[in-house]
Design brief:
The structure holds two protein chains of two kinds.
Chain A: E1 3-6, H1 17-31, E2 41-44, H2 65-72, E3 78-81, H3 87-101, E4 106-113, E5 127-128, H4 143-157, H5 166-176, H6 191-196, E6 199-201, E7 204-205, E8 215-222, H7 224-227, E9 236-242, H8 256-274, E10 283-285, H9 292-300, H10 309-314, H11 333-337, H12 343-353, E11 367-374, E12 377-384
Parallel strand pairs in A: 2-3, 2-4, 10-11
Antiparallel strand pairs in A: 1-8, 4-8, 6-7, 9-12, 11-12
Chain B: E1 9-10, H1 17-24, E2 29-32, E3 39-40, E4 58-61, E5 65-74, E6 88-95, E7 102-107, E8 120-129, E9 132-139
Antiparallel strand pairs in B: 2-3, 2-4, 5-6, 5-8, 6-7, 8-9
Classes of the chains: A alpha/beta, B mainly beta.
Bound molecules: zinc ion (ZN).
């Protein structure tokens, strides 16, 4: 990985998402010391992650790799979009394999996220066919109830308290408040503010959810050999893993046992692919689109014992200001940046391992892991500061 | 429950029609594979247990008894017809018939009901419109007979 660019993260950009994506892509290409014509691979995963009834329009609510290449005015050799869940590890896999196979020399990987007007997950359906016929008539709909169910299971099984989650939010927002492009720049959150916020789908409250935003990030990937001639210190993809197929369930039904059983397999695939162990990782960046994922990922990847993440974090286990702790949300995550869907985790690995984190630069970071989505329905990528 | 005709109504398809026909008569059925005899929620093209591509699922009546595995109190609704029904409780229920056979439905006992993992429940139904009912649950109490 040899360069990047990131747009501001705003509630509504005030410009078409596609235009923001083109600007961001051009900036990433310049950052990598390249020209548009040299970029011969385009990869994304363009999903618009909403349960709402919003129109899906390329260039407006999402930006496909084809759209971006066409609007940059270039004719790439390789264009691909990842269709599964765990969009970031899925598309990093596509980009890495394109470079490794020679299908492309320089791949631009991007993710464009859109916050539509109107309620993000609101849906005016009066009849429901297909898979949701089994759940929507009962009122089980959208991701808040989806994550609330395994969260309740966790709280019950491990006698944890919802108040313990305040430590996750305080940490995410502390770090997000230090990031100039974050929606939450200079806006930390206190535990009292967290606890005072309204409940949405118990035990999920307002601040347990990331905030939908307009934002685009782009990265340039190439071979280690070509990277030597480019201006920035490269960061290496050591391995990646997507989750195994989940068990057959009702739509959006994610029992805790599914999350942790599937997560164990995701972790095994990651360590096998990267040739590293959990103890090698000094920069784990766990996914946090909903706060309970922080607990689930820390446990699934073996950074703390199963059932202990709530105590581990309350005891300062992920405090980014403590050099002996695991800085699992040092990049602010989605809770501290906005709904950038796995980009904050990837970007933090890149910036820290490339030595480009500025005031936030960590002395010791050499091995990062960027997680996305759920441990059983997502994936993770391992990055290193030295070639493997 | 008061019928609320503006809630999303299920559109039965070829596979699900027997389920909704039975539900309208307040009978809970679950799809059972004709090859291996195991239940699946919801049915699929391929049986997730024996992987036959010709499962010929039949919807067979079940006891309607189960235990609560999880729950949430929904305070914000994203669908029509629920605005005047929040807060309401959704329960994740493991049915007595088969391990990990789980349904999600409303708990009809009210939003302030104290719940614990393992609480026994039994099926109930909400009538949404003429000939349309959806399964829900009520607490069965310790005498519910569920181990
Ligand atoms: Zn079968």
């Amino acid at each position: 990985m040899v360069g990047y660019a990131h747009s501001p993260v705003t509630r509504h950009a005030g410009r078409p998402l596609g235009a923001v994506a083109v600007d961001t892509a051009r900036a990433a290409i310049v950052d990598a010391g390249l020209e548009v014509g040299q970029v011969d691979g385009f990869v994304t995963s363009a999903l618009f992650p909403t349960a709402g009834s919003h129109a899906v329009v390329d260039g407006e609510s999402l930006v496909s790799a084809d759209w971006l290449a066409a609007h940059l005015g270039t004719i790439p050799r390789y264009v691909a979009g990842f269709q599964g869940i765990g969009q970031i590890p899925g598309m990093v896999g596509l980009a890495v394999n394109a470079v490794a196979s020679g299908a492309a020399d320089y791949v631009l990987l991007h993710r464009a996220l859109h916050n539509p007007t109107g309620r993000y997950h609101g849906n005016p359906m009066t009849t429901v066919a297909g898979a949701q016929q089994w759940t929507a008539p009962q009122g089980f709909f959208g991701p808040l109830s989806m994550i609330a169910l395994p969260y309740t299971e966790y709280l019950q099984r491990y006698r944890a308290d919802r108040d313990a989650m305040a430590a996750v939010l305080v940490e995410a927002r502390k770090n997000g408040a230090r990031i100039p492009w974050s929606y939450w720049y200079k806006q930390p959150l206190t535990a009292e503010e967290y606890r005072a916020a309204p409940m949405l789908s118990d035990p999920i409250g307002r601040f347990d959810c990331d905030l939908p935003v307009d934002g685009v990030a782009a990265f340039i990937l190439t071979s280690a050999q070509r990277a030597r001639d480019l201006p920035h210190r490269p960061v290496y993809v050591a391995g990646y893993a997507s989750s195994p197929p989940p068990p057959r369930r009702l739509p959006l039904h994610w029992p805790l046992d599914d999350i942790m059983t599937g997560g164990a397999e995701t972790a095994r695939r990651l360590w096998d692919s990267a040739g590293i162990r959990p103890t090698d990782v000094d920069l784990p960046q766990v996914y946090d689109g909903f706060s309970p994922f922080v607990w689930f990922w820390l446990e699934a990847l073996g950074f703390c014992p199963v059932g202990e993440a709530h105590r581990f974090i309350q005891d300062g286990g992920i405090d980014s200001d403590n050099p002996t702790a695991l800085p699992a949300l040092s990049g602010g995550g989605a809770l501290g940046n906005g709904r950038m869907h796995g980009i904050p985790q990837m970007l933090e690995c890149y910036l820290q391992l490339a030595g480009r984190a500025g005031d936030r630069q960590r002395e010791q970071a050499t091995v990062g892991v960027a997680c996305h989505s759920s441990p059983h329905y997502g994936g993770a990528v391992a990055y290193t500061s030295e070639p493997g | 429950m008061t019928p609320t005709p503006t809630r999303p109504l299920p559109v039965p398809d070829e596979q699900s029609a027997p389920f909704w026909a039975a539900a309208a008569r307040h009978i809970l059925t679950v799809a059972r594979c004709s090859a291996c005899g195991l239940y699946t929620v919801p049915p699929d093209q391929v049986c997730p247990h024996c992987r036959t591509t010709d499962p010929a699922f039949s919807f067979e009546p079940v006891s309607g008894r189960g235990v609560v595995r999880s729950w949430t109190v929904v305070r914000q609704s994203f669908l029509p017809g629920f605005a005047d029904q929040v807060p309401f409780v959704l329960v994740d229920v493991e049915l007595a018939e088969q391990a990990q056979l789980r349904l999600i439905g409303r708990l009809l006992d009210g939003p302030d009901t104290a719940l614990h993992a393992g609480d026994p429940v039994t099926v109930g139904f909400e009538d949404l419109a003429d000939g349309v009912a959806v399964p829900a649950f009520t607490l069965a109490g310790p005498a519910g007979g569920v181990a």
